[in-house]
Amino acid sequence: MRDVGSDKDEDEMTDKHMTTVSQHYFVDESDKPSFSIAIIENMKEEYGLFVWPCSVILAEYVWQQRYRFSGANVVELGAGTSLPGLVAAKVGSNVTLTDDSNRIEVLKNMRRVCEMNKLNSFDDLFATITYLLQSSPGSVFITTYHNRSGHHLIEFLMVKWGLKCVKLVDGFSFLPHYKARELNGNIQLAEIVLNHESPEETSTSTVR
């Protein structure tokens, strides 16, 4: 007689061994990675939890046509591991991922990969910036950010949310040497306004 609990434990162990995380890189014209997408795959599944070659090709097409997709509404049908949809979201599309409602594990995995790739955090930030700038005409959002291959993502999100950068400088260019030598990295300072405003209209800058 075989213990049913043992069968369940063995199945769970098998699922863990069959699960892997694949990284998919997307490079710009200088052949430097702009960002990567992490996908949780399970080789035991036949369809929904495996990145098919067609998905890789479609994701690359979205990346190469990224300016076309920036700000667009995108629905990925039968998304599965969602690689094309995630790339579209990274370049500034409003994305809806769909799949068979009966395949609960696939839907759960879609949520996990969205969280893993932190797709909501930047979008929420830029939505807040847009709201604040719209509420205070003539205001400027001034920020510094550590560029970890995310500059293109920020460009796409500015287009998506109707923003533009009126000033972008190297953070070390105005920093005293005794402070600069204690820091490292590629740090940019940006001044961002609503896109319908001109730089002349934002002569009074306020940091809030």
TrEMBL record:
Gene Ontology MF terms in the entry: methyltransferase activity
Database matches in Gene3D superfamilies: Vaccinia Virus protein VP39
Keyword Methyltransferase: yes
InterPro entries: Methyltransf_16, SAM-dependent_MTases_sf
Annotated GO biological process: methylation
Entry keyword set: Methyltransferase, S-adenosyl-L-methionine, Transferase
S-adenosyl-L-methionine found in the keyword field: yes
Superkingdom, taxonomy of origin: Eukaryota
Family: Belongs to the methyltransferase superfamily. METTL23 family.
Protein name: Methyltransferase-like protein 23
Organism of provenance: Citrus sinensis
